UniProtKB/TrEMBL annotation:
Compositionally biased intervals (Basic and acidic residues): 64-81
Keyword rRNA-binding on entry: no
Name of the protein: WD40-like Beta Propeller Repeat
InterPro entries per UniProt: WD40, WD40/YVTN_repeat-like_dom_sf
Source organism of this protein record: Nocardioides psychrotolerans
A Pfam short name: PD40
Transmembrane segments: 22-42
Domain of life: Bacteria
Region of interest called Disordered, as start-end residue ranges on this chain: 56-81
Alphabetized UniProt keyword annotations: Membrane, Transmembrane, Transmembrane helix
Amino acid sequence: MVTTDTAAAPATPARATAVRRLLVAGVSLAACFSGLSVAGLLSAESSPFPPAVPEATCGPGARPETDIQGRVPTRDYDSGRVRRGYQCNTRQVSHEGATGGFKVLRYTDRTGRTCAYYDSTRLFPLDAPFQVQSGFGVVVLDMSDPSRPRRTATLTSPAMLSPHESLLINDRRGLMGAVLGNASTNAGILDLYDVRTDCRRPRLLSSTPAAVLGHESGWSPDGRTFYASSTVGQTLVAIDVTDPLLPRPVFTQLGVNYHGMRLSPDGRTMYAANIGNDVSDGTFPGQGLRVIDVSEIQDRVPNPSVTVLSDLVWREASIPQVSQPFRRGKRSYLLQVDEFANFGLTDFAGAEVGAARIIDVTDPRRPLVVSNLRLAVHQPAGRRKAFNDPGASSPVGGYAGHYCSAPYRQDPKVVACSMIGSGLRIFDIRDLKHPRELGYFNRPVQSAIPIKTGANALSQPAWDVKRRSVWYTDGNSGFYVVKLTNGTGRLLQR
């Protein structure tokens, strides 16, 4: 079943459709190899967008943004204002390192020690000149004192040198896994580490080619199955890691273009970010959320099959990144985020930004978008206004979303999103249908080096609920511990 979020879905102008059909022959092959959708060939103004969320009301200690919500204007670089950073109902607790990638993870081992883990590169060798000083691989931090993170190890096994977006921990078993990946795909070497014994010194259990190809990933909640997707490589592999010393593939599917994958609490339903493959009319019409029955994999049925339960698409989509499941009462939801902008060949300034949304998946055959998490700078008018700001014109950066997270699965009241040039954004979701901005923290870099200019908040944030803090990395400046202030942190209480 394909469901389209069409509460006010507009008709596509005939002329624009004709232009898209003429262009598709030249762009579809490139899209397949780049992993980038071409649905943005139409100007964003061709369809109404969901509105931006209401702006945060900043309390004492704020250094508020000087322009529309989420923007760091060129004049702030020219005046030097950018060096002070921007914060609203947040404050910096600590900072470590000089680079960052796509994940920040938090884990408490069986002795009670708490550690942070973050990948140090967005895309090797893009960050190599900066990693020479700060170190290559996945960084391990002892977070016994969050005000003074202490680096205890840097993991440099094959997958850890370039895990791309695949680094994840299974809390139940204390296993950390990643596959060797890059922006398209790479040889899928799967590395598995024990972090349960001593989180400060992870122990490599195995390093095998079990994933076939690599880019993104997902864990079954019971920690018995690690899923790897190669995106451009068109593979989905389920790997039995019941014995982490001897991982073995139990299912391989070809011809699917999935990004991040998360699973229901029983491990029987997969929520896959589906980039899609059909470019026959210049778009990927199936892109968005794909809900899949993977119960035969979970049950270890010989030669398992999977069943697509539903597909959900939304009109303002860019590149679907991942969906994090959570529950409100007895209903099931996803915190879903799109990455980058859905750009075409000629009008990237007018490209659509998907940002993030909340999806009701209580009935997995009929998922429904409940609300959207968007900033003013994501809107068509805001995007055009801000397009020439430092770092904003990058097709793989700028003012767009990348990863979001909730502090826990049952009844979260607040969520955080890394929104690249707009930094870390905090949202109040007590009213799921009407989310609002709660605060933000952004540390853009002013540099003569273009790839180090601006903010580059790409990481999945991690939560320290007890201390009312969020951990994230900025690719241009490293790891941050950020405390929610002015009473906003109370929303982390269960």
